[in-house]
Amino acid sequence: MDTSENDKGVANSSKELDAGALFVLKSRGSWLHCGYHLTTSIVAPALLSLPYALSLLGWFAGVVCLTIGALVTFYSYNLLSLVLEHHAQLGHRQLRFRDMAKDILGPGWGKYFVGPIQFGVCYGAVIAGVLLGGQSLKFIYLLSTSHGTMELYQFVTIFGILMLVLAQIPSFHSLRHINLVSLILSLAYSACAMAGSIYIGHSKNAQAKDYSINERGWNRLFGSLNAISIIATTYGNGIIPEIQATIAAPAKGKMFKGLLVCYAVVATTFFSVAISGYWAFGNQAKGTVLMNFMPDDKPLLPFWVLLMTNVFTLLQVAAVTVVYLQPTNEVLEQKLADAKIDQFSIRNMVPRLIFRSLSVVIATTIAAMFPFFGDLNAVIGAFGFIPLDFILPVVFYNVTFRPSKQGLMFWGNTLVAIIFSALGVLGTISSIRQIVIDANTYSLFANV
């Protein structure tokens, strides 16, 4: 079999030959490539919702939650990396989240808890990405003509066709150049969003800024929980082990460097967009700050600025979507491909083409039928990203390294797990409540 030495090392450390690991999770990347993958999976157009999250929390609580989210996820992702490095040094390199759960917590945890949650989170991100891509295309269309007759589902379908092509990229490592461009695009549209907010906030037609929280009582509490779910989803990743699997052995220390690259971009983009957007629009901040740039179809910024911002967003969401397709691709490859023959043989190419295309068609159909998927995605974020990114890393670390119960590390990790478990449960309840409230506005193939 024609393969690199790194691929052989991965194969030799596995109990059985695995097409998903050998073909999709090729271990050939550097720490810089890892940084590109991490940045694309975290710094996504979801960050444009952060001004809205701050409007539900207020200045102090909003900035505090944003800061805590950055610190806790950076910490937990490093813990996850240390656990992966530890097992690799013992001769058993784990390449998937479900493998970690299986080896550390037991087979049932990987098969019935972590595996399904990760698949749901990642495929939900794919559906949301296709929907957001369609909405960006529609926004660009409405900029060019105010009397257009095309509807949202048509734009979602067009974006889905683009994803059909990108889904055929053979491996995670093959995305490294796309993800470098994605990193640059995220900086570009974040700069546009910040500049647009500051421009509108200083314009003579700027609305009076009100930073009070609109809701009261229980509605205010549930609004705060929704905001925390939004922030958790924005920082969420869910595929840290799969990204570390793309690093060429030995992987020790490389993930930390990749995380430094990623969080330099996170600090630059998240806080600038969140603070400038909330400063400009206050409690009138909408679900995404781009909606505030064009209220009632009346643009508040020059045409070219709006067009450029949406084009940058459109291109980057394509990269984000194909990154979150990788866990689905890996499962399909594991089940359908033959690892004993060449990756690009007819025997492996035909099933790959058919089933990757089918997964994109299903995601595109769901996105077109249910354009209110944002409400459902909030549930996925609370029920999925919080366990995967805030809770399980500290649990894995405590179980693997068994720090002293009298030490700060053990109780700090335990406290993180308890607090975010409670927030995950409350966030899920709050998100489901929001779905019930909005249910009367739902309709299939709605042109929103």
Automatic annotation (TrEMBL):
Keywords: Amino-acid transport, Auxin signaling pathway, Membrane, Symport, Transmembrane, Transmembrane helix, Transport. Pfam families: Aa_trans. It is a multi-pass membrane protein. The chain crosses the membrane at residues 56-77, 112-132, 152-169, 181-201, 221-240, 260-281, 301-325, 353-373, 379-401, 408-429. Residues 28-435 form the Amino acid transporter transmembrane domain. It comes from the Eukaryota. InterPro entries: AA_transpt_TM. It is found in: Endomembrane system. Carrier protein involved in proton-driven auxin influx. Mediates the formation of auxin gradient from developing leaves (site of auxin biosynthesis) to tips by contributing to the loading of auxin in vascular tissues and facilitating acropetal (base to tip) auxin transport within inner tissues of the root apex, and basipetal (tip to base) auxin transport within outer tissues of the root apex. May be involved in lateral roots and nodules formation. Belongs to the amino acid/polyamine transporter 2 family. Amino acid/auxin permease (AAAP) (TC 2.A.18.1) subfamily. This is Amino acid transporter transmembrane domain-containing protein. It comes from Hevea brasiliensis (Para rubber tree).
